[in-house]
Amino acid sequence: MGKMIIKALSSRFAIALLAVATGLLTQATVASQDLQRRELPFLQAEVNADKTPVKVALPTLAQVFLKGNSSKIGQVIVIDSQGQKLVLKHQSGQTLSLPLGQVEKVVFKDGNVFYRSDGRMVYRGNSNEPVGKQDSWDNIPLNDFKLGDANKGQGEVTLGPPVVDEDKLEGIRLVARNSQFVVDEMQFNLPKKTMMIKATPY
User: Is the C-alpha dihedral spanning 96, 99, 102, 108 positive or negative?
Assistant: First the structure.
């Protein structure tokens, strides 16, 4: 009889311990999830703090070199990373859609018009000389480039490590405060979902 009582008490004690342990584990899990939720905005802000959106201008006339030694000329009005296409607009108003996979590079030559971020139109070349050397940014994620006002070639590229290190990024910030980066060349790497941009400050 005594053994039965002891066995019953042991079972109840084990069940009680299990319940307490389960409750503590649940509380710890909830607390951990709550801490993660509270820390996430700070972590995200820290990541975003390392990146800087830089306004860039695409001149109104580009030559698109295609694989196979052919090329097309027009104004770049769409760069669609999701649909993987580039759209050119001719002076006649007609548009031409090109698969990004067929694009070797896009070149914007001197003598073409570009628009500053404040809307002013500028003729590149002659009296409007660059204020700095050409810069090259490689391995930019395709999603980090956005083309806003396509008619004026107003774009924005988000730069930060590992595309550029902190020292170079600070230099880009300083230049961008008083100058406009104008795109000279673009290349696309679809397997890596990245792009390269060469730009010169004016």
Answer: positive
My answer on whether omega of the bond before 162 falls inside 30° of 0, hence cis, is yes
Burial of 18 (0-12, 13-18, 19+ CB in 10 A): exposed
**Quick one: which of 164, 187, 179 has its CA closest to 129?**
179
Give pLDDT tens digits for 55-101: 999 999 999 999 999 999 999 999 999 999 999 999 899 999 999 99
DSSP percent split of the chain into helix, strand, coil, nearest 5: 35, 40, 25
28: Cβ contacts below 8 Å, ≥ 6 apart: none
Cα–Cα–Cα angle for 121, 96, 143, nearest 5°?
70
Contact status, residue 66 vs residue 72, Cβ threshold 8 Å = yes
Separation between Cα atoms, residue 122 and residue 111, nearest integer Å: 10
* Both structure tokens of 14: 């084990």
User: What digits encode the pLDDT tens for the residues 107-133?
Assistant: 998 888 999 999 999 998 777 889 999
Helix (H) or strand (E) holding 171: helix 166-178
CA–CA dist 86, 101 (Å, integer): 10
